[in-house]
């Protein structure tokens, strides 16, 4: 789905240019779930904006959905296939009701009116908003708005959805809700890039990429990141309670593949 080789991005700052991403070698296969993490300002948003054509790399190669991202027409084509769900639930709705919002995404598809109404119904059902079809968007909760944003990605038939810290402004229930919605889409075949700084969201990701200072510092499984890499300590991360207990077990000789990543895995061990 995504192949980046030696990807470099520089931005203009007054008279000078500053390197924001340096020499990134990274790939995401179709149908994969990958989490992307790193401290504020390390380049996560800059990288994902390259993936959906909003940023143009200064050097290196980038292919998305089989398209070379250098020509502008390829970047424009990819914008529809790789959709973003942003942090702020209020910043991504255009319609005044969920129905209108999804209709907006479907407008350019040339569907007959009855087919369009049926498709809007299916999408709102899929994101759990069928009962809010005609509600004022301003009355939706943050989590419902994020569900609606996901519905808009579905209306555009996205091959890949990038969730850019999409749970960071939600309460714990809303966070779990959006995570589970994304997991359902992933199980149905959508490629997911899940950008987060939350340990519990990293723990449930099969693969984690860590960015630091515009470079890819780690790309691998959560278990090797938390139990076999010095990176979390070096980056000053606070481990989740499950990993803290796991570290104690590790010191007593437990094999890495049995160490817990989540509260549920910890409960099973205990
Ligand atoms: N168009 C731009 N012009 C100037 N500086 C930019 C531009 N885009 C990104 N940057 C800078 O590049 C660096 C990386 O920013 P980016 O938003 O990609 O980081 P991030 O990891 O997503 O941060 P956060 O977690 O805070 O959202 C920052 O120092 C930012 O100010």
TrEMBL record:
<dbReference type="InterPro" id="IPR003593">
    <property type="entry name" value="AAA+_ATPase"/>
</dbReference>
<dbReference type="InterPro" id="IPR050095">
    <property type="entry name" value="ECF_ABC_transporter_ATP-bd"/>
</dbReference>
<dbReference type="InterPro" id="IPR017871">
    <property type="entry name" value="ABC_transporter-like_CS"/>
</dbReference>
<keyword id="KW-1278">Translocase</keyword>
<keyword id="KW-0067">ATP-binding</keyword>
<comment type="similarity">
    <text>Belongs to the ABC transporter superfamily.</text>
</comment>
<keyword id="KW-0472">Membrane</keyword>
<dbReference type="InterPro" id="IPR027417">
    <property type="entry name" value="P-loop_NTPase"/>
</dbReference>
<feature type="domain" description="ABC transporter">
    <location>
        <begin position="2"/>
        <end position="238"/>
    </location>
</feature>
<keyword id="KW-0547">Nucleotide-binding</keyword>
<keyword id="KW-1003">Cell membrane</keyword>
<dbReference type="InterPro" id="IPR003439">
    <property type="entry name" value="ABC_transporter-like_ATP-bd"/>
</dbReference>
<protein>
    <submittedName>
        <fullName>ATP-binding cassette domain-containing protein</fullName>
    </submittedName>
</protein>
<dbReference type="Pfam" id="PF00005">
    <property type="entry name" value="ABC_tran"/>
</dbReference>
<dbReference type="InterPro" id="IPR015856">
    <property type="entry name" value="ABC_transpr_CbiO/EcfA_su"/>
</dbReference>
<dbReference type="GO" id="GO:0005524">
    <property type="term" value="F:ATP binding"/>
</dbReference>
<keyword id="KW-0813">Transport</keyword>
